Amino acid sequence: MVSAKLIALAALVAVASASPCKPPVLTLPSTGGSDLAAPPANDVVKRIAIGHGIQNYTCNSAVSPTASATGALAVLYDATPFYPGTPKTGLKQAAWDTLPSAALWGSPLPLNLAVPGGYAANESNPFPSPADLVLGNMAPLKFLGHHYFAADGTPTFDLSAIGLKASVTKNDTRPAPANADKGILGTGAVAWVLLRDPGLGRSIGIDTVYRVVVAGGAAQPCSVTGDGHFSVPYATFYWFYGPK
Ligand SMILES: *[C@@H]1O[C@H](CO)[C@@H](O)[C@H](O)[C@H]1NC(C)=O
Ligand SMILES: *[C@@H]1O[C@H](CO)[C@@H](O)[C@H](O)[C@H]1NC(C)=O
Ligand SMILES: *[C@@H]1O[C@H](CO)[C@@H](O)[C@H](O)[C@H]1NC(C)=O
């Protein structure tokens, strides 16, 4: 009996001391309540990105007092090496969990702005030259690519730095947790989202995208903005999954 216990204990110790060299298991964050569906069974995590940019809205107060969402624009940075438990580069869990907030509050919007100090991007030339994201004293998060809506309105993630692409449609949403970062304008966090490839052959290596741990991005009321287009800053994690 005793020896069996000792053997079991020795096995545990071996796992624990081996783990610093092994990549961690990447576990999609939970809202703490009802969660989005799990990724397809044979998928693996291709990248975890920080997205930092704007959510677009339009108001037509004759039709509704609340803004309707019209799209988004964001720059994507590779957060994968900082996942807790990653040998050498992994962050402490609390630092990881607040990485979207750190990007939102700690870095200027990585877009060419239409008006200095505003949140709207230059329509014809929204993205500056690729640059890594520097947050505090962390190692820089490498530039991964861009998130935008294609001309036909399809949410698109072009991970140009690694040759992957997701052209996806919204499958499901969950409200952000009540304690989510309400963002620069204090309007609240937009919902967590599951997006899937609709099978049009426009994606490369990615078939499932999650937007989770969102900070900011929710619309102001139309009574505040007046009619027309406006943009609200946000940052989030995007988890990209694809076949092995
Ligand atoms: C938007 O970008 C274009 C191309 O770089 C530039 O010519 C134009 O002046 C910019 N517009 C604003 C409002 O900054
Ligand atoms: C979002 O708004 C910006 C202006 O702030 C514009 O440049 C961009 O094309 C818009 N994108 C979408 C998808 O609505
Ligand atoms: C969401 O994805 C599941 C699994 O592919 C599918 O069965 C369901 O019809 C999708 N729902 C919507 C609203 O797209």
From TrEMBL:
<protein>
    <recommendedName>
        <fullName>Malate dehydrogenase</fullName>
    </recommendedName>
</protein>
<keyword id="KW-0732">Signal</keyword>
<feature type="signal peptide">
    <location>
        <begin position="1"/>
        <end position="18"/>
    </location>
</feature>
<dbReference type="InterPro" id="IPR021851">
    <property type="entry name" value="DUF3455"/>
</dbReference>
<dbReference type="Pfam" id="PF11937">
    <property type="entry name" value="DUF3455"/>
</dbReference>
